[in-house]
Specification:
Layout (H helix, E strand, L loop, with lengths): L3 H23 L4 H4 L2 H14 L5 H11 L2 H12 L7
Helix pairs in contact: 1-3, 1-4, 1-5
Length: 87
């Protein structure tokens, strides 16, 4: 059984992974993405997530839950800047 500190670290890293996936989706256009800066946050949060002493199934679920947030961040960018995709 994992300790409370390990569970808190896992939850914080899972939240950081979801947040960084959204940031990656939002900043997919522009100079920041060319240099890979948003991806650095995602990689760091995934490394922290996968180094916790939690069951591997929970780690996999936390990683897979973060994936839909990348296109969600992209659509937030489109909505925020009022870009028309289909004319």
């Amino acid at each position: 059984m994992a300790t409370t500190a390990t569970q808190i670290r896992f939850l914080l890293s899972a939240l950081a992974t979801i947040l960084s996936a959204t940031v990656v989706g939002y900043f997919n256009v522009g100079i920041l993405y060319l240099f890979g800066l948003p991806l650095i946050l995602l990689v760091i949060s995934l490394v922290i997530l996968w180094t916790t002493k939690i069951d591997i199934r929970r780690k996999a679920v936390a990683t897979l839950v973060a994936l839909p947030f990348v296109p969600a961040g992209f659509y937030i960018f489109i909505w925020w800047h009022e870009i028309t995709i289909i004319t």
